[in-house]
């Protein structure tokens, strides 16, 4: 594992357990080649399509809605075999990833990204509720409300 990758993991991890989970799983994995838009990258061999999507890019994992394996539609939980051609179908990123994805993910990187997306979605939801409450309070008091004020 390279030093820059370790620094990135440290900065993204919410706690030491996430860091340990990611580093221990990356120490004992085989490598695969990822081909995407004319670029070739080396990455840890993913266990299923969810792990593969997050290995390509976090945004791909966050916006994954389906997949094709060797040209056939398959569920995101499908296990990948050596030599499989995988196409991840994406849509506009949803606000929340299903919590079940965390238990389906094999790699620490994917699990950490799912937890991070879930935390962000919950935080955004609470912020939206708080803003709605403030707007209602201003409306009840018959005071004009504006975000910039």
Helix run count? 6
- Characterize the largest beta sheet: strand count, sense, and whether it forms a barrel: 3 strands, antiparallel
Work out the strand percent: 15-25%
Instruction: Look up the CATH topology.
Output: Ubiquitin-like (UB roll)
CATH class: Alpha Beta
Order of helices and strands: HHEEHHEEEHH
Shape designation: elongated
Mean pLDDT: 76
Percent of residues in helices: 40-55%
SSE blueprint and pairings:
Layout: H1 3-12, H2 16-27, E1 31-36, E2 39-44, H3 49-56, H4 58-62, E3 64-69, E4 72-74, E5 86-90, H5 100-104, H6 108-140
Antiparallel strand pairs: 1-2, 3-4, 3-5
Helix pairs in contact: 3-6
Q: How would you sum up this structure, described in words?
A:
The protein is an alpha+beta fold. It has one domain (30-140): Ubiquitin-like (UB roll), CATH 3.10.20. It has six helices and five strands. It has helices spanning 3-12, 16-27, 49-56, 58-62, 100-104, 108-140, and strands at residues 31-36, 39-44, 64-69, 72-74, 86-90. The strands form two sheets. A three-stranded antiparallel sheet has the order 4-3-5. A two-stranded antiparallel sheet has the order 1-2. Helix 3 (49-56) crosses helix 6 (108-140). The longest helix is centred in the C-terminal third of the chain and has 33 residues, at 108-140. It is elongated. The termini are far apart. The model has no long low-confidence stretch (mean pLDDT 76).
């Amino acid at each position: 594992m390279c030093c820059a990758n370790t620094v990135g993991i440290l900065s993204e991890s919410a706690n030491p357990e996430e860091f340990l989970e990611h580093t221990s799983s990356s120490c004992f994995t085989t490598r695969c080649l990822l081909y995407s838009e004319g670029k070739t990258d080396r990455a840890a061999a993913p266990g299923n399509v969810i792990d593969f999507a997050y290995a390509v890019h976090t945004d791909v994992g966050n916006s994954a809605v389906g997949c094709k394996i060797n040209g056939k539609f398959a569920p995101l939980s499908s296990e990948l075999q050596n030599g499989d051609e995988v196409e991840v179908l994406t849509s506009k990123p949803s606000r929340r990833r299903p919590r079940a994805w965390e238990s389906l993910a094999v790699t620490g990187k994917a699990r950490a990204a799912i937890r991070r997306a879930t935390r962000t979605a919950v935080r955004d939801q609470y912020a939206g509720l708080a803003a709605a409450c403030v707007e209602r309070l201003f409306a009840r008091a018959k005071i004009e409300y504006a975000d910039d004020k």
